[in-house]
Amino acid sequence: MEQPAVTGLAGVVLITDRLAAQRRLFGELLGLPTAWATEDAHVFRVGAASIGFFEPSHHPEAVPRLGGACHGISHLEFTVSPRARSAVERLLTPHSVGDAMFEDADGNLFHLVER
What we know:
- This protein is 22% helix and 42% strand.
- By secondary structure, it is α+β, with helices and mostly antiparallel strands.
- It has one domain: 2,3-Dihydroxybiphenyl 1,2-Dioxygenase, domain 1, CATH 3.10.180.10.
- It has an 8-stranded mixed sheet with strand order 2-3-4-1-5-8-7-6.
- Strand 7 and strand 8 form a beta hairpin.
- The longest helix has 11 residues.
């Protein structure tokens, strides 16, 4: 059986207006390690995947997609092998919204991460 082009979920990014509280919950209480952080964003490692929290100022294009909400899912990150990435991107061309981002039938954003 041929291996699927998409091999896993690399991460999820959520928009939050409570970044300090998210840092306390996921970093201090749950003890998740930081992958990277800025003043208005924080990404934690969860095994081989990640969960990120972005304030609206860090990812302003996400807010209109959330209907103006200050929290919710910004986008998903799917893993693909480096060998399969170009072919998958060609298949997804009709769903491209620019800058290597794609959208599903409901307008949810996702992009590909090589692993």
